[in-house]
Write a structure and sequence with these properties.
The chain is of the alpha+beta class and 119 residues long. The chain is built from four helices and five strands; from the N terminus they run βββββαααα. The longest helix is centred in the middle third of the chain and has 31 residues, at 47-77.
Length: 119
């Protein structure tokens, strides 16, 4: 496999043929790392890399959960008082628990189950 490097010695492209005059040949496998950057596979096998990848994945998960909270929860919670007035006391209690579970999602990492009556 051939690859090219940028001025920071990061792999910028790969191919099975010499696609640029400055392309370098290697037998090493090139993969995408957790940031989407091309790296040699051996660079992803250290304990330090695995720890950093784990931290990155957890941050990404929290970001995804925050987005879900925005779209699945806040759109319901931010409805007007006329809608809230149609709810029973039991529904309001269930809605409050569901909302609090969404607020704690970055700690629990558990997506709350939406009440069945909630549309």
């Amino acid at each position: 496999m051939y690859y090219t490097l940028n001025k920071n010695n990061k792999i910028t492209a790969t191919a099975n043929y010499k696609f640029q005059p400055d392309a370098v040949y290697t037998d090493e496998e090139v993969v995408y790392d957790y940031n989407g950057q091309l790296v040699f596979k051996h660079e992803t096998e250290s304990e330090e890399y695995k720890a950093a990848a784990s931290v990155h994945e957890k941050l990404k998960l929290k970001e995804d959960l925050r987005f879900r909270r925005e779209t699945e929860c806040f759109m319901v919670i931010n409805r007007g008082y006329l809608w809230y007035d149609t709810l029973t006391a039991a529904q309001r209690d269930e809605l409050k628990m569901w909302y609090e579970a969404w607020l704690n999602i970055t700690k629990t990492l558990i997506v709350p189950v939406k009440p069945e009556w909630l549309k």
